[in-house]
Write a structure and sequence with these properties.
Blueprint lengths: L1 E6 L10 H11 L8 E8 L1 H12 L7 E5 L11 E9 H7 L7 H16 L7 H19 L5
Length: 150
């Protein structure tokens, strides 16, 4: 599993914890860890997440995270293939962190993990599904930050 992290917005250097994001996303994608797949986590601003939301989902609002699954192409047996893309809105994470009693880093991780859980097949169509995704994401965050300066 190849996990790429892109910062396409003004994320401060102390929050560019690429190794932590990769570790957390790998945990969320563990079912696919042995697949020769590639996942892109892209941190964007509100303007860009709105553009993505309008263009691809026909939603006219800013959101926290958007994930796109990509089907395996028939030729991707030995080559890496783009399994999915996760867009995380840095500004929404900054606004929501106090609301959910998270640090800014934890909230950014929450969105990246949430997107990866969607790529893994989970959904949040019901309150119960959403609660299960949140529980799993919180557990991954705790395990990832354990032993770090967080």
């Amino acid at each position: 599993m190849i996990i790429n992290i892109f910062y396409q917005t003004n994320v401060p250097s102390h929050l560019r914890r690429t190794g932590l994001f990769k570790k957390a996303c790998a945990a969320a994608l563990k079912h696919y860890a042995k697949e020769n797949a590639e996942v892109n986590i892209v941190f964007v601003n509100e303007k860009e997440i709105l553009r993505v939301n309008k263009t691809f989902l026909n939603h006219h609002y800013v959101t926290d995270v958007i994930s796109f699954n990509h089907e395996r192409p028939p030729f991707a047996i030995t080559m890496p293939w783009a399994f999915g893309d996760v867009y995380v809105c840095y500004q929404v994470a900054r606004k929501n962190a106090p609301r959910f009693k998270h640090t800014f880093l934890q909230e950014m991780m929450m969105y990246a993990i949430h997107g990866c859980l969607h790529l893994s097949g989970m959904n949040d169509h019901t309150p119960q599904d959403r609660a299960e995704m949140d529980r799993r994401a919180e557990k991954i965050i705790a395990q990832t930050l354990k032993g770090t300066a967080g």
